[in-house]
Design brief:
The chain has about 300 residues and is of the alpha/beta class. It has one domain: Alpha/Beta hydrolase fold, catalytic domain (Rossmann fold). Strand 6, helix 6 and strand 7 form a beta-alpha-beta unit.
Amino acid sequence: MTGPVPRPAKHHPRMKFAVAFAVLLTPAACHAGAARQEASGQENQEPRIAVNPTGPDQLPDAILGKAPPPQGENVHYFAGDSATTGYLAVPAGKGPFPALILIHEWNGLNDRVRQVADAMAREGYIALAADLYSGRTGSTREENMALVNEVRGDMSTAIANLNAAVRFLRARDDVTGKVATMGWCFGGGIAFSYALDGAEHDGTAVFYGQIATTDPDSLEHMHHGFYGTYAGQDQGIPPERVHEFVQALRAAGIPNDVHIYDGVGHGFWLWVDQDPAAREAPALDAWQRLKRYLKQTIGGA
């Protein structure tokens, strides 16, 4: 199900939606000066990843469990919390490149997300995997829920964290200025909320993240097109909720590419290797849609 529609120009003051933010979790789920300081001098020091985009029938190795160890580097992009440790993957070449902020699942920033950041660098994007947990990760449902609830209880800090990520990226000489976010599960829900309540950015890609609102008036505060991938067997986000959401996007005049994949459940895209027979085909379609969406919204390969 896709729903691209032309969007009339609209300018609205931003409103705060942090209180309305909700996160889907299932047992199977998963200032500019500071930014300039981080960005300066990196061209000759930071590791670079060769640009080598996937072909039309090829998934990135990262989601197949076949990627090498992360090739990028840790960065401290958030002056408000020195423990926040993001991960930066930079394509080889002078650029400038469009940029992506990746937002982790409920258990925190791990190597799977770092490897996806590397994959996006191979596609020609500077990729910053954000850290919303101050360098921590969870290993049990209880630990994950404690971290999630901590963020949910202080959404203003999460928004400030991602605003700092945008500034960090735009401070780099090799970034075009175009920045999009993408996230999965908890991170998808955060990306959705950030599209309504964060600094100006240019795109939002959500993989089975909680749909915080289906109110067209609220959605008008999203100032760019929306990409969404959902799962027909997701117990937390039923297809009816997704259909309602698409209707609201259309009513708000938000260009969108939203699709429900019937034969899979929550978490299918980031972890294709857990059930390749069922997940590879829908994951490939979602990947090709994502590549088209990013090219249309922020540019790139």
